[in-house]
């Protein structure tokens, strides 16, 4: 939507708006704009074309998060016909804007893990549950889209074996509420310096390692082993697990393998289908993280394929875009 269109639709909904500024475009197709009211207040308008989906689930979850005291944006207005919500403006700073690999910002990761523990254990009814077939199908994008369609490569024969082992390990984890994209871009540092969660419309019941991986196996910065270990010790405390960080890291490992295989396919698909290149720069580190996390045992050939042939072809592809 253009600025003039955002202003017009906000005014049609009863908000006296004089300015609008685009914030971000999500892979889901949601567009976010900060709107400036005549009163001096700011709000966030989210637009999703009605043909692409609804805000129903987001509104349902928002009501429960608000009642449970889990920091998230209050929804002030919604029109499904127009495809918009108008939400509380939590501010400009998401954790993606901060170098959280620096020790001075590690407390924000701990706060985020505490927030995650609240989200995971929140009593929110009517949340769909993933199944093993869905987890497996989501990983297919690595072979069918990222390797075949995007890089024009023949997938390695060991990928199905890795998918099977990944699903088996995920099924053995605790399953709880899962944001499904719990990464720094979706965690806001509000005006009170507290962390808040956004973009939770895809929440489902899923293995805990997926959201832990979203935060600790980052697409932009690489955390030290010590930092990850300390963070998982804190998470164990928040959840009263009584488990070591080493044990929980195995949840993270398999959650990250599933997540990174899925996202490599998703971001490639967005480029192929919609010519959106805004996230292609992330592919290299996502691939590197995947290679690092795949166990060495039984996957030496696959890791070599990804490290040499796929890395090389990805680098070449990126120079052509």
Name some characteristics of this structure.
five-stranded antiparallel β-sheet, Aminoglycoside 3'-phosphotransferase, Chain: A, domain 2, 321 residues, 14% strand, Phosphorylase Kinase, domain 1, 9 strands, 2 domains, alpha+beta
How do you describe this structure in short?
The protein has 321 residues and is an alpha+beta fold. 49% of the residues lie in helices and 14% in strands.
Strand order of the largest sheet: 1-2-3-5-4
Order of helices and strands: HEEEHEEHHHEEEEHHHHH
Q: Helix share of residues? A: 40-55%
How many structural domains?
2
**CATH homologous superfamily annotation of the largest domain:** Aminoglycoside phosphotransferase (APH), C-terminal lobe
Determine the number of helices (DSSP H or I, runs of at least 4 residues): 10
**Major sheet description:** 5 strands, antiparallel
What is the CA-atom radius of gyration, in angstroms? 20 Å
Shape: globular
Quick one: how many beta strands?
9
Spatial separation of the terminal alpha carbons:
25 Å
What is the CATH class designation of the largest domain? Alpha Beta
Q: Report the mean per-residue pLDDT as an integer.
A: 96
Give the second-level CATH assignment, the architecture of the largest domain: Alpha-Beta Complex
């Amino acid at each position: 939507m253009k600025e003039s269109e955002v202003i017009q639709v906000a005014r049609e909904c009863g908000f006296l708006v004089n300015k609008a500024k685009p914030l971000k475009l999500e892979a889901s197709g949601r567009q976010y704009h900060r709107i400036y009211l005549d009163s001096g207040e700011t709000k966030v308008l989210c637009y999703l074309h009605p043909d692409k989906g609804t805000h129903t689930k987001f509104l349902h979850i928002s009501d429960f998060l608000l009642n449970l005291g889990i920091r998230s944006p209050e929804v002030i207005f919604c029109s499904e016909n127009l495809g918009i919500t108008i939400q509380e403006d939590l501010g400009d700073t998401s954790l993606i804007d901060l170098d959280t690999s620096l020790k001075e910002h590690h407390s924000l990761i701990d706060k985020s893990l505490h927030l995650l523990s609240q989200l995971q254990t929140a009593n929110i009814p009517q949340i769909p549950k993933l199944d093993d077939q869905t987890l497996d199908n989501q990983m297919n994008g690595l072979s069918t889209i990222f390797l075949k369609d995007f890089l024009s490569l023949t997938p390695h024969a060991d990928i199905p074996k890795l998918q099977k082992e990944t699903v088996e390990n995920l099924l053995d984890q605790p399953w709880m509420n899962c944001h499904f994209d719990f990464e720094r871009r979706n965690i806001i540092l509000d005006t009170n310096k507290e962390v808040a969660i956004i973009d939770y419309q895809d929440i489902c019941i899923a293995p805990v390692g997926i959201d832990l991986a979203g935060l600790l196996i980052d697409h932009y910065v690489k955390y030290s082993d010590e930092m990850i270990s300390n963070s998982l010790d804190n998470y164990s405390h928040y959840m009263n697990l009584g488990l070591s960080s080493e044990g929980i890291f195995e949840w993270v490992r398999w959650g990250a393998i599933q997540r990174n295989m899925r996202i490599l396919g998703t971001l490639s698909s967005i480029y192929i289908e919609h010519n959106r290149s805004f996230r292609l720069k992330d592919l290299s580190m996502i691939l590197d993280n995947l290679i690092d996390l795949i166990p060495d045992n039984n996957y030496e050939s696959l890791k070599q394929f990804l490290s040499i042939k796929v890395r090389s072809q990805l680098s070449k592809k990126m120079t052509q875009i």
